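REQUEST ID: PR-0412
SUBMITTED BY: lab tech R.K.
PRIORITY: routine
TASK: structure prediction, single protein chain
INPUT:
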Amino acid sequence: QVQLVESGGGLVQTGGSLRLSCAASGRTFNSNAMGWFRQAPGKEREFVAVINWSGGSTYYADSVKGRFTISRDNAKNTVYLQMNSLNAEDTAVYYCAASSGRYYYLGGANYGMDYWGKGTLVTVSS
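STATUS: complete
OUTPUT:
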């Protein structure tokens, strides 16, 4: 059974940083694109960032560009989201996702993702 388990969420002050991790089990995702999405209270889930299978290509939502960095360590079957300069608008449950293929797709709401974690809560306080 495929599992994506997020960790690293928590409470942080405005301007602070957090690093989220997503560990995959049940199968390896070394040859698959992966991504991060988030859902704020009362809002729909939205795209944050994606990365292709090798880590050589990434894409970000405009709202996080320049502040967040997605990366991966294929030897550890893990993808990361480094979040800097956090603000209240970043408060959300963050979900890890994985694709069945090597590349993400810019069309569609899910950017080609097929597997989803259960999420980790990030709360940014002022």
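NOTES: The mean pLDDT is 95.
REVIEWED BY: pending
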